């Protein structure tokens, strides 16, 4: 691109020298149309699309955020788990308890009792590592169905775009906090703070700043965006990347 725009060539060492100590992300897109559009993936997307068709409106409780920060469950990690629904607003918890509490909240809600009393509760998961053992950890319930999207099907899940927007804001904030993250270790109560904790503090602040960006309005907009893929899944059609 540099050669096409400016007619100049840059060696890799020059590019590397300018990227040292600069916060950046390199994303590799794994495109496998044969797997994405296999019969198994199409059937899973069709099941998801046929179940997730009725959409009304919902919102978080007055004074509550759409997303809340959760403490790390193991090691120095910051986990944000969130369930968004047009009918029921949002719910947050940790790991397996996340699904169980989400199920109880929906069963006790006025929206469910008035409009969905005889319908099973459907919880849709992606293929994130945090969801790998959900089926074995969640207690069995006759009216609870755990549905997992097929591989290479993030385009059918509106929450993917919601979290992409939030992560973009986190990266922008951390870029401004680069000097603080790479600076000398601080002192707390007479004890030195580790480098990991020094970097965790601005990360937690970045999470707070970005949480307000995930709103019910954003979810409605993302649902409209993925509707074309959901309609294609109902027809057992293939998925197109970059659409």
Automatic annotation (TrEMBL):
Residue span(s) of domain Tc1-like transposase DDE: 52-172
Xref: Pfam families: DDE_3 (PF13358)
UniProt xrefs under InterPro entries: RNaseH_sf, Tc1-like_DDE_dom
GO molecular function: nucleic acid binding
Protein name per its UniProtKB record: Tc1-like transposase DDE domain-containing protein
Native species: Phytophthora nicotianae
Lineage: Eukaryota, Sar, Stramenopiles, Oomycota, Peronosporomycetes
